[in-house]
Design brief:
Layout lengths: L2 H32 L3 H28 L5 H14 L7 H30 L3 H30 L5 H19 L15 E2 L5 H33 L3 H29 L1 H18 L6 H16 L2 H11 L4 H17 L1 H12 L1 H20 L4 E2 L3 H5 L2
Parallel strand pairs: 1-2
Amino acid sequence: MHRKKIFLASFSHFLCDVNTGALPALLPFLVASHGLSYSAASGLMLANSSLASVIQPMFGLLSDRSPKMWLMPLGIVIAGVAMASLGFIESYLGIFCAVGISGIGAALFHPAGMRFVTSAAGERQGTGTSLFSIGGNMGFLLAPLFVVGLINAFGLRSLGILAILAVGMGLLILYESAKFTPNSEKVDKKPGEVRESSNNWSAFFRLTGAIICRSALMVCLRVFVPLYWIAHFAKTETEAAFALTLFGLSGICGNFLGGMLADRLGFVPVIRLGYALTLPLMLIFPFLDNFLLAYLDLVLLGFALYTTFSPVVVVGQRYLSRNIGLASGITLGLGISIGGLFAPILGLIADHFGLLATFHSMSALAFLGLLFTLILVPTSKSAKRQLETA
């Protein structure tokens, strides 16, 4: 494994996702500065996240057909420069376009970045993918603190630092990519695994079903746990936000451990283990009246859910061994955005039947996700030829 390349990709992922993670924290400043309505502000989130997630598979297909290393630095530069421009644009249309363009840059970055990581990781695909995705997780987690502190100290125009960081990182990646020779280490099959010679769409659709269930759980827990903390445990908004922070931090730990275990035990077994742990944790969550036990269960839920994050990306690439960019675009983008569509559905359940019914519905999603993992086909690495020409 090329450790220097992996850590460079992880840090570039951090800087790329700082832009996306910063947007929710930027909205109050944009509302105050430009007099935006709440609907106009929420439209900016739609322009950034939903558009990026939908077009990410298309950029993945582009990286398959034209696997050029410059796609990765181009994506991060577009994402950073466009988000930085929010400090200088006055019209809502301009802000809307800038936010959308930033999302497009992030969508361009992720499949190309994943190809880079897959090439650099060699036979330690799980560890390499985990380190790459942890960079993005940390970007989302720390972006609000970074951006709010920056604006409070220096004003909206200080967002220009995002452009400087993006251009600097883009140039560094371009320089390092020019010196990079894809890893050609031999990767052995694990006992019982089947080497794929072509795209296995049937298996990939099953994996996508599992990803959608996991994504729906992640999104809905972020939405409804703060409400549950306040309504059920009579906690403050600050304590509810702290619960989400713990959920995110435990997820980062689970992400890293899941990648390492996948390298040792196999990717599909670790995916099944993560979903198998999630189901009982989700089932007991709405029955916990002890606040500390609920905290513990939430932390374990974050850990279990995120152990599958990196393995599903690698397995998706192996199922679509001829289109690993497309596979990355779907597993990292489209599958996650589709999972987010469950939030308003569960919101309606909460309105009519209460928050506890919402969490019981999440248990059904956890059960469905586990069923999808039980019909997955174990695979070994088979995209070597494509990676060596990336």
